[in-house]
Please model this.
Amino acid sequence: MTSEKIHIFDTTLRDGEQVPGCKLNTKEKVELALKLEELGVDIIEAGFPISSPGDFESVNQIAKVIKNATVCGLTRAVEKDIEVAAAALKPARRPRIHTGIGSSDIHIRHKFNTSREDILQRAEKATRFARNLVPDVEFFAEDAGRADPEFLARLIELVIKAGATVVNIPDTTGYCLPHQYGERIAYLVNNVPNIDKAIISCHCHNDLGLSTANSIAGAIAGARQIECTINGIGERAGNTSLEEVVMIIKQHESSLHLYTDIKTQMLNPVSQLVSDIMRMPVQPNKAVVGSNAFAHSSGIHQDGFLKEATTYEIMTPEEVGAGGSKIVLTARSGRSALAHRFQKLGHEFNRNDIDVLYQQFLKVADKKKEVMDADLEVMAKDYQAKEIVL
Ligand code: KIV
Ligand code: ZN
Model:
């Protein structure tokens, strides 16, 4: 069975940049867009052109420099928005307009104060209008995670008829469970007669920590595009994390029969770049790119890892561009890790030496969060001095 491609739609510069404090200027956005292209993302959502002159300028500059990836601009289902996005995207080799409207009754009633029929009309009109300006139009059905499936299917059928090339099914509020989100995508695959004319896209938020699982469930059910951000940054609790979905797909290619074109060795450097320019630290225990993702600190794990790395690592740090695996020495560490570190520091101790040194090590470790090389050097020196006296 041959694998099928999952298109990676990166929205770090749009949904990611909506995070308070993460705003970037045009120069920073262009720098990041070029890195994302090098990383291998298929679509770069560069911004929301009508939202500010600065965002228009950023989308326009990105459209000028990006050569291979599709450059996308967000709009509401409003003609003026769409015209402005098309103008910003004019220099792009592959422009895409991303337009859409609320699809759940909660959004229809409270945000738009209107009816389902009116939403259908607005969606169709906006899609048709956008399709007259660019050949690639993605339609988002906002809050699709909570929409009535039958209505959602009608809406999606209509926008595909109107020219949508990609249909985005956002779980805007991060509400769905993975099996529910997967079923939603499967429902569309089975109930939208023209679904084969468009790519289905997953856009999941992380309010319950399920965005990655939901996106993968969507892909299993037939979606072929995943919308995500570097480090999972985005509105509220964030978006699906690019590095997580990419590595899940890579690790499980033989059972999922899916692949991406992401150069995984660039994941850690790009994560660091985003963290630096957005001044947004990455949590240490973050999958794939956290500073502890390849750190081993308990004695049982360290002993296994030192015997054979695959006992506790399902991917190598090199594969994702991380500096390397780390053995962290704490009060939970064991003798093998201690002996290994002494050896790395150039001290060859036998088993009896290590037994004695280990007692000293535990005393230091109980006082400190982490025992550093400098502490070990002191221990080694004291121990050797005592040995000479004896
Ligand atoms: O979360 C969402 O629904 C969005 C849309 C604008 C695609 O970000
Ligand atoms: Zn979003």
